[in-house]
Amino acid sequence: MKIYNTGCTYDYKFIKGILFLFLIVACTSCKKDKQIEIDKEEIVSPTTGTRTEFTLDSIFLYAKQVYLWNDVLPGYSTFKPREKYGNAQSEISAFRNELFDISQFKLNQATGKPFELSTYNNLPKYSYLQIGRTSGGGNRAGAISGEAVLAKRLIRLDDKVIAYVALGSFPSLSTAKSKLDQVFDEISADKPKYLVLDLRSNGGGYVETAEYVANLIAPSTLNGKVMYSEQFNQILQSGKATILRHQPYLDENGKTVTYNGRLATLADVDYTESGNIYKFNKKGNLESIQDVYIIVSGQTASASELLISCLKPYFNVKLIGEKTYGKPVGFFGINIDQYSVYLSSFLIKNAQGWSDYFNGMEPDLNVTMPNNPTLGDTEEACLKAAVAAIDGKIQLQPKKSASILRLNLNRIPLALIDKDSIGMIENRLKLKY
Protein backbone atom coordinates (compact mmCIF):
# COMPACT_ATOMS: atom_id res chain seq x y z
CA MET A 1 0.00 0.00 0.00
CA LYS A 2 1.33 3.42 -0.90
CA ILE A 3 1.19 6.62 1.04
CA TYR A 4 0.30 10.05 -0.21
CA ASN A 5 0.58 13.10 1.98
CA THR A 6 -1.88 15.86 1.19
CA GLY A 7 -2.46 17.34 4.62
CA CYS A 8 -5.43 19.51 5.47
CA THR A 9 -6.67 22.75 3.98
CA TYR A 10 -5.07 25.63 5.86
CA ASP A 11 -7.10 26.67 8.86
CA TYR A 12 -6.15 28.65 11.96
CA LYS A 13 -7.91 26.10 14.14
CA PHE A 14 -5.84 23.35 12.54
CA ILE A 15 -2.55 25.11 13.23
CA LYS A 16 -3.62 25.98 16.76
CA GLY A 17 -4.56 22.36 17.29
CA ILE A 18 -1.07 21.25 16.33
CA LEU A 19 0.37 23.30 19.15
CA PHE A 20 -1.53 21.20 21.69
CA LEU A 21 -0.99 17.83 20.05
CA PHE A 22 2.06 16.80 22.07
CA LEU A 23 0.72 14.24 24.50
CA ILE A 24 1.77 14.30 28.13
CA VAL A 25 3.30 10.86 28.47
CA ALA A 26 2.33 9.13 31.68
CA CYS A 27 4.96 9.75 34.35
CA THR A 28 5.65 6.05 34.79
CA SER A 29 6.21 5.65 31.08
CA CYS A 30 8.55 8.66 31.00
CA LYS A 31 10.65 7.22 33.80
CA LYS A 32 10.99 3.92 32.00
CA ASP A 33 12.07 5.39 28.70
CA LYS A 34 13.88 8.72 28.81
CA GLN A 35 14.54 8.59 25.07
CA ILE A 36 10.87 9.11 24.25
CA GLU A 37 10.13 11.52 27.04
CA ILE A 38 8.38 14.70 25.92
CA ASP A 39 9.11 17.83 27.94
CA LYS A 40 6.15 19.20 29.82
CA GLU A 41 6.94 22.61 28.34
CA GLU A 42 6.03 21.23 24.93
CA ILE A 43 2.35 21.67 25.74
CA VAL A 44 2.95 25.39 26.37
CA SER A 45 2.57 27.42 23.16
CA PRO A 46 0.65 30.51 22.10
CA THR A 47 -2.99 30.22 21.11
CA THR A 48 -3.02 33.51 19.24
CA GLY A 49 -0.84 34.89 16.50
CA THR A 50 -0.44 35.46 12.80
CA ARG A 51 -0.48 32.83 10.10
CA THR A 52 3.31 33.09 9.82
CA GLU A 53 3.77 32.67 13.57
CA PHE A 54 1.62 29.55 13.67
CA THR A 55 3.58 28.07 10.75
CA LEU A 56 6.88 28.80 12.50
CA ASP A 57 5.53 26.99 15.56
CA SER A 58 4.36 24.04 13.48
CA ILE A 59 7.68 23.51 11.69
CA PHE A 60 9.47 23.27 15.03
CA LEU A 61 6.84 21.05 16.68
CA TYR A 62 6.82 18.64 13.74
CA ALA A 63 10.62 18.45 13.96
CA LYS A 64 10.37 17.60 17.66
CA GLN A 65 8.57 14.39 16.78
CA VAL A 66 9.57 13.53 13.19
CA TYR A 67 13.18 14.69 12.75
CA LEU A 68 15.73 11.88 12.83
CA TRP A 69 17.91 13.68 15.37
CA ASN A 70 15.09 15.13 17.46
CA ASP A 71 16.81 14.00 20.67
CA VAL A 72 19.04 17.10 20.68
CA LEU A 73 16.37 19.70 19.93
CA PRO A 74 15.55 22.12 22.78
CA GLY A 75 12.05 22.75 24.08
CA TYR A 76 9.67 25.18 22.44
CA SER A 77 10.09 27.86 25.10
CA THR A 78 13.87 27.67 24.68
CA PHE A 79 13.89 27.65 20.89
CA LYS A 80 11.33 30.52 20.61
CA PRO A 81 10.64 30.29 16.86
CA ARG A 82 8.44 33.40 16.76
CA GLU A 83 11.07 35.61 18.37
CA LYS A 84 13.95 34.24 16.29
CA TYR A 85 12.43 34.44 12.85
CA GLY A 86 9.62 36.97 13.07
CA ASN A 87 11.71 39.75 11.51
CA ALA A 88 12.96 37.85 8.47
CA GLN A 89 12.86 39.64 5.10
CA SER A 90 10.25 37.23 3.74
CA GLU A 91 8.03 34.47 5.03
CA ILE A 92 9.83 31.74 3.09
CA SER A 93 13.20 33.02 4.39
CA ALA A 94 11.90 32.81 7.95
CA PHE A 95 10.81 29.20 7.50
CA ARG A 96 14.01 28.12 5.76
CA ASN A 97 16.21 29.85 8.33
CA GLU A 98 14.31 28.05 11.07
CA LEU A 99 14.73 24.70 9.34
CA PHE A 100 18.45 25.32 8.91
CA ASP A 101 18.89 26.10 12.61
CA ILE A 102 16.93 22.97 13.57
CA SER A 103 19.23 20.91 11.35
CA GLN A 104 22.46 22.18 12.91
CA PHE A 105 21.97 20.89 16.48
CA LYS A 106 23.10 17.29 15.90
CA LEU A 107 26.86 16.91 15.56
CA ASN A 108 28.68 14.06 13.87
CA GLN A 109 31.16 12.87 16.49
CA ALA A 110 33.58 11.78 13.79
CA THR A 111 33.90 15.33 12.43
CA GLY A 112 32.66 17.58 15.25
CA LYS A 113 30.41 19.29 12.70
CA PRO A 114 26.65 19.06 12.12
CA PHE A 115 25.42 16.10 10.09
CA GLU A 116 23.46 18.56 7.96
CA LEU A 117 26.22 21.10 7.45
CA SER A 118 26.52 21.90 3.75
CA THR A 119 28.18 24.29 1.34
CA TYR A 120 24.84 25.95 0.67
CA ASN A 121 24.22 29.26 2.42
CA ASN A 122 21.85 28.56 5.30
CA LEU A 123 20.37 25.44 3.71
CA PRO A 124 20.62 22.03 5.42
CA LYS A 125 22.49 19.29 3.61
CA TYR A 126 19.43 17.02 3.64
CA SER A 127 16.21 18.53 5.00
CA TYR A 128 14.39 21.18 3.00
CA LEU A 129 11.18 23.20 2.69
CA GLN A 130 9.52 24.49 -0.44
CA ILE A 131 6.42 26.27 -1.58
CA GLY A 132 3.74 23.86 -2.78
CA ARG A 133 2.06 21.03 -0.98
CA THR A 134 3.01 17.41 -1.54
CA SER A 135 0.76 15.53 -3.90
CA GLY A 136 1.07 11.78 -4.44
CA GLY A 137 3.61 9.59 -2.72
CA GLY A 138 5.53 12.39 -1.10
CA ASN A 139 5.85 13.93 -4.55
CA ARG A 140 7.06 17.49 -4.70
CA ALA A 141 5.96 20.34 -6.87
CA GLY A 142 8.04 19.63 -9.95
CA ALA A 143 8.54 15.97 -8.96
CA ILE A 144 11.70 13.98 -9.65
CA SER A 145 12.72 14.98 -13.14
CA GLY A 146 14.95 13.34 -15.68
CA GLU A 147 15.10 10.02 -17.45
CA ALA A 148 15.74 6.86 -15.50
CA VAL A 149 17.89 5.34 -18.27
CA LEU A 150 20.27 7.65 -20.11
CA ALA A 151 22.36 5.10 -22.02
CA LYS A 152 23.18 1.41 -22.28
CA ARG A 153 25.48 -0.84 -24.28
CA LEU A 154 27.33 -4.17 -24.25
CA ILE A 155 31.11 -4.27 -24.42
CA ARG A 156 33.03 -7.42 -25.41
CA LEU A 157 36.57 -7.69 -24.15
CA ASP A 158 38.08 -11.00 -25.30
CA ASP A 159 36.06 -13.52 -23.29
CA LYS A 160 34.58 -10.86 -20.98
CA VAL A 161 31.10 -9.45 -21.51
CA ILE A 162 30.49 -6.07 -19.86
CA ALA A 163 27.09 -4.44 -19.57
CA TYR A 164 26.98 -0.66 -19.24
CA VAL A 165 23.91 1.22 -17.98
CA ALA A 166 23.70 4.94 -17.14
CA LEU A 167 20.86 5.88 -14.79
CA GLY A 168 20.02 9.57 -14.60
CA SER A 169 17.51 9.55 -11.75
CA PHE A 170 15.03 7.41 -9.84
CA PRO A 171 11.61 8.81 -10.77
CA SER A 172 8.44 7.09 -9.55
CA LEU A 173 8.46 3.38 -10.34
CA SER A 174 5.26 3.66 -12.37
CA THR A 175 7.11 6.10 -14.63
CA ALA A 176 10.38 4.17 -14.92
CA LYS A 177 9.45 0.49 -14.69
CA SER A 178 8.81 -0.34 -18.36
CA LYS A 179 12.07 1.21 -19.55
CA LEU A 180 14.09 -0.41 -16.77
CA ASP A 181 12.55 -3.80 -17.54
CA GLN A 182 13.33 -3.43 -21.23
CA VAL A 183 16.96 -2.43 -20.72
CA PHE A 184 17.84 -5.13 -18.21
CA ASP A 185 16.04 -7.83 -20.21
CA GLU A 186 18.10 -6.88 -23.26
CA ILE A 187 21.28 -7.06 -21.21
CA SER A 188 20.42 -10.46 -19.73
CA ALA A 189 20.49 -12.17 -23.14
CA ASP A 190 24.31 -11.90 -23.26
CA LYS A 191 24.83 -13.13 -19.68
CA PRO A 192 27.41 -10.50 -18.67
CA LYS A 193 29.51 -11.12 -15.57
CA TYR A 194 30.46 -7.45 -15.27
CA LEU A 195 28.15 -4.47 -14.88
CA VAL A 196 29.29 -0.86 -15.18
CA LEU A 197 26.59 1.25 -13.57
CA ASP A 198 26.92 4.95 -14.31
CA LEU A 199 25.42 7.05 -11.51
CA ARG A 200 27.60 10.13 -11.93
CA SER A 201 24.63 12.49 -12.45
CA ASN A 202 22.02 10.61 -10.42
CA GLY A 203 20.90 12.70 -7.44
CA GLY A 204 18.40 10.12 -6.25
CA GLY A 205 14.62 10.04 -6.13
CA TYR A 206 12.27 7.35 -4.94
CA VAL A 207 13.54 4.58 -2.68
CA GLU A 208 11.12 2.16 -4.34
CA THR A 209 12.72 2.70 -7.77
CA ALA A 210 16.29 2.30 -6.49
CA GLU A 211 15.21 -0.90 -4.77
CA TYR A 212 13.66 -2.14 -8.02
CA VAL A 213 16.97 -1.61 -9.84
CA ALA A 214 18.77 -3.61 -7.13
CA ASN A 215 16.29 -6.45 -7.72
CA LEU A 216 16.95 -6.29 -11.48
CA ILE A 217 20.71 -6.64 -10.86
CA ALA A 218 20.60 -9.28 -8.11
CA PRO A 219 20.35 -13.00 -8.90
CA SER A 220 17.39 -15.00 -7.64
CA THR A 221 19.71 -16.69 -5.10
CA LEU A 222 19.48 -13.48 -3.04
CA ASN A 223 15.70 -13.70 -2.69
CA GLY A 224 14.66 -13.25 0.93
CA LYS A 225 18.00 -11.80 2.03
CA VAL A 226 18.07 -8.35 3.64
CA MET A 227 18.64 -5.50 1.23
CA TYR A 228 18.35 -2.58 3.68
CA SER A 229 16.35 -1.22 6.60
CA GLU A 230 14.99 2.18 7.56
CA GLN A 231 15.51 3.39 11.13
CA PHE A 232 13.25 6.16 12.45
CA ASN A 233 13.65 8.05 15.73
CA GLN A 234 12.40 6.61 19.02
CA ILE A 235 9.24 8.74 19.17
CA LEU A 236 8.16 7.50 15.75
CA GLN A 237 9.13 3.90 16.51
CA SER A 238 7.15 3.93 19.76
CA GLY A 239 4.03 5.30 18.06
CA LYS A 240 4.08 8.57 19.99
CA ALA A 241 4.37 10.99 17.06
CA THR A 242 0.85 12.24 17.68
CA ILE A 243 1.30 15.38 15.61
CA LEU A 244 1.09 13.19 12.49
CA ARG A 245 -2.63 12.75 13.14
CA HIS A 246 -3.00 15.89 11.03
CA GLN A 247 -1.42 14.24 7.97
CA PRO A 248 -3.88 11.91 6.19
CA TYR A 249 -2.84 8.52 4.85
CA LEU A 250 -4.05 7.87 1.30
CA ASP A 251 -3.84 4.74 -0.83
CA GLU A 252 -2.16 4.33 -4.24
CA ASN A 253 -5.24 5.91 -5.86
CA GLY A 254 -5.11 8.97 -3.65
CA LYS A 255 -8.11 7.84 -1.61
CA THR A 256 -8.51 7.91 2.13
CA VAL A 257 -8.16 4.61 3.99
CA THR A 258 -10.38 3.42 6.82
CA TYR A 259 -8.38 2.24 9.81
CA ASN A 260 -9.95 1.01 13.06
CA GLY A 261 -13.24 2.61 12.11
CA ARG A 262 -11.80 6.04 11.18
CA LEU A 263 -9.71 7.64 8.49
CA ALA A 264 -6.03 6.64 8.67
CA THR A 265 -3.30 9.21 9.25
CA LEU A 266 0.49 9.14 9.24
CA ALA A 267 0.32 8.55 12.97
CA ASP A 268 -0.99 5.05 12.16
CA VAL A 269 2.11 4.05 10.20
CA ASP A 270 4.44 1.31 11.46
CA TYR A 271 7.75 3.10 12.02
CA THR A 272 9.47 0.22 13.88
CA GLU A 273 12.77 -0.97 12.46
CA SER A 274 11.47 -4.55 12.22
CA GLY A 275 8.53 -3.27 10.20
CA ASN A 276 10.81 -1.45 7.76
CA ILE A 277 13.21 -4.15 6.63
CA TYR A 278 13.29 -4.62 2.86
CA LYS A 279 14.49 -7.86 1.28
CA PHE A 280 15.56 -8.93 -2.18
CA ASN A 281 12.81 -10.08 -4.51
CA LYS A 282 14.30 -10.82 -7.94
CA LYS A 283 12.94 -8.95 -10.94
CA GLY A 284 13.71 -9.70 -14.58
CA ASN A 285 15.95 -12.34 -16.11
CA LEU A 286 19.46 -11.07 -15.40
CA GLU A 287 21.24 -13.70 -13.26
CA SER A 288 24.90 -13.47 -14.27
CA ILE A 289 26.32 -10.31 -12.66
CA GLN A 290 29.18 -10.85 -10.20
CA ASP A 291 31.28 -7.67 -10.33
CA VAL A 292 29.77 -4.18 -10.29
CA TYR A 293 31.80 -1.11 -11.21
CA ILE A 294 29.97 2.10 -10.40
CA ILE A 295 30.85 5.51 -11.84
CA VAL A 296 30.21 8.17 -9.20
CA SER A 297 30.68 11.89 -8.56
CA GLY A 298 29.68 14.57 -6.06
CA GLN A 299 26.28 14.51 -7.75
CA THR A 300 25.75 10.85 -6.89
CA ALA A 301 23.46 11.15 -3.89
CA SER A 302 20.75 9.69 -1.72
CA ALA A 303 18.83 6.88 -3.45
CA SER A 304 21.85 6.32 -5.72
CA GLU A 305 24.04 5.82 -2.67
CA LEU A 306 21.34 3.54 -1.26
CA LEU A 307 21.67 1.34 -4.36
CA ILE A 308 25.45 1.19 -3.94
CA SER A 309 25.12 0.39 -0.25
CA CYS A 310 22.60 -2.42 -0.91
CA LEU A 311 24.87 -4.11 -3.44
CA LYS A 312 28.07 -3.96 -1.40
CA PRO A 313 27.41 -6.95 0.91
CA TYR A 314 26.65 -9.27 -2.00
CA PHE A 315 28.79 -8.19 -4.97
CA ASN A 316 32.35 -7.19 -5.70
CA VAL A 317 31.58 -3.45 -5.89
CA LYS A 318 34.16 -0.90 -7.02
CA LEU A 319 33.63 2.86 -7.28
CA ILE A 320 35.27 4.90 -10.02
CA GLY A 321 35.25 8.68 -10.30
CA GLU A 322 34.90 11.19 -7.46
CA LYS A 323 33.58 11.09 -3.90
CA THR A 324 29.79 10.90 -3.66
CA TYR A 325 27.52 13.47 -1.99
CA GLY A 326 26.94 11.54 1.27
CA LYS A 327 23.28 11.10 2.18
CA PRO A 328 22.27 7.94 4.08
CA VAL A 329 18.98 9.50 5.26
CA GLY A 330 15.53 9.81 3.74
CA PHE A 331 12.19 11.47 4.34
CA PHE A 332 8.51 11.64 3.57
CA GLY A 333 6.61 14.83 2.84
CA ILE A 334 4.70 16.81 5.48
CA ASN A 335 2.25 19.58 4.59
CA ILE A 336 2.21 22.72 6.71
CA ASP A 337 -0.02 25.45 5.33
CA GLN A 338 1.01 25.99 1.68
CA TYR A 339 4.45 24.44 2.17
CA SER A 340 5.86 20.95 1.96
CA VAL A 341 8.53 20.12 4.52
CA TYR A 342 11.00 17.26 4.16
CA LEU A 343 12.66 16.61 7.50
CA SER A 344 15.39 13.98 7.56
CA SER A 345 13.33 11.18 9.07
CA PHE A 346 15.08 7.84 8.75
CA LEU A 347 18.56 6.36 8.51
CA ILE A 348 19.29 3.78 5.82
CA LYS A 349 21.29 0.69 6.85
CA ASN A 350 22.41 -2.08 4.50
CA ALA A 351 22.47 -5.80 5.30
CA GLN A 352 25.68 -5.34 7.30
CA GLY A 353 24.25 -2.44 9.29
CA TRP A 354 26.42 0.07 7.42
CA SER A 355 25.22 3.65 7.13
CA ASP A 356 28.30 5.77 7.81
CA TYR A 357 28.77 7.64 4.56
CA PHE A 358 27.57 11.08 5.67
CA ASN A 359 30.71 12.57 4.16
CA GLY A 360 30.39 10.62 0.93
CA MET A 361 31.72 7.34 -0.41
CA GLU A 362 35.34 7.47 -1.51
CA PRO A 363 36.12 5.96 -4.93
CA ASP A 364 38.44 2.99 -5.30
CA LEU A 365 39.85 4.76 -8.34
CA ASN A 366 39.84 8.54 -8.62
CA VAL A 367 39.08 9.80 -12.11
CA THR A 368 38.58 13.46 -12.87
CA MET A 369 35.12 13.95 -14.34
CA PRO A 370 35.10 15.20 -17.95
CA ASN A 371 32.68 17.90 -19.01
CA ASN A 372 29.71 16.85 -21.15
CA PRO A 373 30.77 13.20 -21.52
CA THR A 374 29.31 10.96 -24.19
CA LEU A 375 27.77 8.26 -22.04
CA GLY A 376 28.58 4.75 -23.22
CA ASP A 377 31.62 5.83 -25.24
CA THR A 378 34.48 3.48 -24.36
CA GLU A 379 36.92 6.38 -24.81
CA GLU A 380 35.09 8.47 -22.18
CA ALA A 381 37.41 8.81 -19.17
CA CYS A 382 35.36 7.00 -16.50
CA LEU A 383 34.09 4.15 -18.66
CA LYS A 384 37.57 3.74 -20.12
CA ALA A 385 38.96 3.42 -16.60
CA ALA A 386 36.27 0.90 -15.63
CA VAL A 387 36.99 -1.27 -18.67
CA ALA A 388 40.73 -1.07 -17.98
CA ALA A 389 40.15 -2.17 -14.39
CA ILE A 390 38.04 -5.12 -15.53
CA ASP A 391 40.78 -6.01 -18.02
CA GLY A 392 43.40 -5.93 -15.25
CA LYS A 393 45.29 -2.98 -16.74
CA ILE A 394 44.57 -0.81 -13.68
CA GLN A 395 44.91 -2.19 -10.18
CA LEU A 396 42.34 -0.78 -7.78
CA GLN A 397 43.61 0.02 -4.31
CA PRO A 398 41.81 0.17 -0.96
CA LYS A 399 39.79 3.35 -0.61
CA LYS A 400 42.16 4.96 1.91
CA SER A 401 44.97 4.89 -0.62
CA ALA A 402 42.98 4.97 -3.83
CA SER A 403 44.83 5.03 -7.12
CA ILE A 404 44.62 8.33 -8.92
CA LEU A 405 44.17 8.41 -12.67
CA ARG A 406 45.00 11.94 -13.79
CA LEU A 407 43.56 13.02 -17.11
CA ASN A 408 44.58 16.22 -18.83
CA LEU A 409 41.11 17.55 -19.47
CA ASN A 410 39.86 21.09 -19.63
CA ARG A 411 37.43 20.72 -16.80
CA ILE A 412 35.10 22.94 -14.83
CA PRO A 413 34.61 21.51 -11.31
CA LEU A 414 31.34 19.72 -10.82
CA ALA A 415 28.81 21.75 -8.89
CA LEU A 416 26.17 20.19 -6.72
CA ILE A 417 22.92 19.75 -8.57
CA ASP A 418 19.77 21.62 -7.63
CA LYS A 419 18.99 21.02 -3.96
CA ASP A 420 15.47 19.77 -4.60
CA SER A 421 16.67 16.95 -6.83
CA ILE A 422 18.83 15.33 -4.17
CA GLY A 423 16.19 13.04 -2.79
CA MET A 424 15.44 9.78 -1.05
CA ILE A 425 11.68 9.82 -0.82
CA GLU A 426 9.79 6.96 0.85
CA ASN A 427 6.31 6.52 -0.60
CA ARG A 428 5.49 3.05 0.76
CA LEU A 429 4.98 3.60 4.47
CA LYS A 430 2.85 0.80 5.89
CA LEU A 431 -0.01 1.00 8.37
CA LYS A 432 0.28 -0.93 11.63
CA TYR A 433 -1.63 -4.20 11.54
Describe the overall structure.
The N terminus is likely disordered. The protein is α/β, with parallel strands linked by helices and 433 residues long. Strand 5, helix 7 and strand 6 form a beta-alpha-beta unit. Helix 7 packs parallel to helix 8 and helix 8 packs parallel to helix 10. The chain is globular and about 75 Å long. The chain has a domain of 229 residues: Alpha-Beta Complex (2-enoyl-CoA Hydratase, Chain A, domain 1).
Task: Summarize the entry for a quick read.
With 433 residues, the protein is α/β, with parallel strands linked by helices. The protein is built from eleven helices and 20 strands. Keywords: Hydrolase, Protease.
Structural key phrases:
433 residues, alpha/beta, 2-enoyl-CoA Hydratase, Chain A, domain 1, seven-stranded mixed sheet, four-stranded antiparallel sheet, 20 strands, 19% strand, disordered N terminus, serine-type peptidase activity, protease, endopeptidase activity, PDZ_sf, hydrolase
Can you identify the CATH class of the domain at 149-233 and 270-332 and 345-425? Alpha Beta
Count the helices. How many? 11
The CATH architecture designation of the domain at 149-233 and 270-332 and 345-425 is Alpha-Beta Complex
Major sheet size, sense and barrel closure: 7 strands, mixed
Could you outline the blueprint of secondary structure elements for this entry?
Blueprint: H1 12-18, H2 27-32, H3 51-66, H4 76-79, H5 81-85, H6 91-103, E1 107-108, E2 113-114, E3 128-131, E4 149-157, E5 160-167, H7 173-188, E6 194-198, E7 204-206, H8 207-217, E8 226-232, H9 234-237, E9 258-259, E10 262-263, E11 277-279, E12 291-296, H10 303-311, E13 316-321, E14 329-330, E15 334-336, E16 339-342, E17 346-350, E18 365-367, H11 381-390, E19 403-405, E20 423-425
Parallel strand pairs: 5-6, 6-12, 7-20, 12-13, 13-18, 18-19
Antiparallel strand pairs: 1-2, 3-16, 4-5, 8-11, 8-17, 9-10, 14-17, 15-16
Helix pairs in contact: 1-3, 3-6, 7-8, 8-10
InterPro entries: ClpP/crotonase-like_dom_sf, PDZ_sf, Tail-specific_protease
Protein name: Carboxyl-terminal protease
GO molecular function, one term: serine-type peptidase activity
